[in-house]
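re: ur msg from earlier - yeah i can do the adenosine-5'-triphosphate complex, just paste it... oh wait u already did. ok heres what im feeding in:
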Amino acid sequence: MLTVETLTVTRGGRTVLRDVNLTLAPGRTLAVLGQSGAGKSTLVASVLGLLRPDHGQVRWNGAPLPRGAAALVMQEPRAAFNPRLTLRRSVQEPLRARRLPDDPVRLARLCRGLELPPESLDRLPGQVSIGQAQRAGVLRALIAAPPLILFDEPLSALDAMTQKHTARMISELQREEGFAALVVTHDLGYAAAHADAIAVLRAGQIEETAETATFFAAPQSAYGRSLVEAAVSLGALGRQTAA
Ligand SMILES: Nc1ncnc2c1ncn2[C@@H]1O[C@H](COP(=O)(O)OP(=O)(O)OP(=O)(O)O)[C@@H](O)[C@H]1O
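and the outut:
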């Protein structure tokens, strides 16, 4: 269980996260919704332990998050990889980092789940499609079976069809593997379809958190309502979720 407790982070002299509280249980997906500059990437970096908070803490089962317990899927798939290494080398890097042996059976199963032809792993990141590169990014995050995976706008570099397909593959793998997923996104359609719970982040503060159906049926904060209304009017949400 991930708990983020009264997390406050300052960057460049400004408080960019203030008293953020979140919880996320294994097997569940929490979507953190927020617009550009809300502090989503700062939250991800803080959970990963890359930024030191001024105040508050990130815990996993009541203790500091162990090294290797969290993996990250970044927004830009190609930028996430060393351009000079084959995808296979990069994908297996988390195993090397943790001194774990290769597991060809697991690798083959994950490749199937992500519809990645095994031979695509022998190419360089620039030699596969963006969609394949992003799925290789998911593969790298999953390979060492971390209990927590953070996704920073994981689908925004992909076209709409590929987004839907990739999101379904990730959800299916989550059902099999049971990891907790924290997804920061401004994509309400994705959140409505794939998250169990929603947290709304605005200007570094959590405006509300709720189970997904509850949030979309009746957002409690004025900002949450405006996000849902904007998404409905853009056609990004099904009518059943219109508030
Ligand atoms: N290294 C930094 N130094 C100073 N300020 C920063 C730094 N990184 C981010 N910020 C500021 O912190 C705030 C939150 O940034 P952050 O990148 O976490 O937001 P975000 O919600 O992820 O936005 P986006 O969706 O555009 O990536 C912004 O106002 C940003 O300008």
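cool cool. The chain has nine helices and ten strands. ping me if u need the other ligands too
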